[in-house]
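I'll show a typical protein example:
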Amino acid sequence: MMSIDGQAELGLARPPQRITVPLEMVWTRKTAAAAFCLACEVSQLEDKEIHIPLGIDKGYFSRIKSGDASLNSDKVADFCRIVGNTVYPEWIAYSVGCTLVMLKSGAERRADAAEQRADEAEKKLDWALEVLDARRK
């Protein structure tokens, strides 16, 4: 992006506001453009803080917001990371009668499996102690 005097404009690196948007608020949007705008508004970032890191120019970003263009699906994950919410893909999922489900990371799956094994081991230990107590009586 170039400024008036020909110098390159630096992209800003301000973190987005991470506000949880109720799904009902997302679902009331009539168009993808309205959902896109909501995602941008909730982040409390300026347009240039979104379109520069996304690698799209100001004019195309404006056309997305007005509904004359759409965000390339390859950029949706980056967009969500930049704006700090999943409003836009939530609306897309809702528009086809679905909803999003957050996938667990590999570490979360391993932790869940370890917790399940620990629970099973505790049950076996309780059973073994109960059998030993019964034999002593």
In short: The mean pLDDT is 88. The longest helix spans residues 106-136. The CA atoms of residues 22 and 40 lie 15 Å apart. The two ends are 83 Å apart (CA to CA).
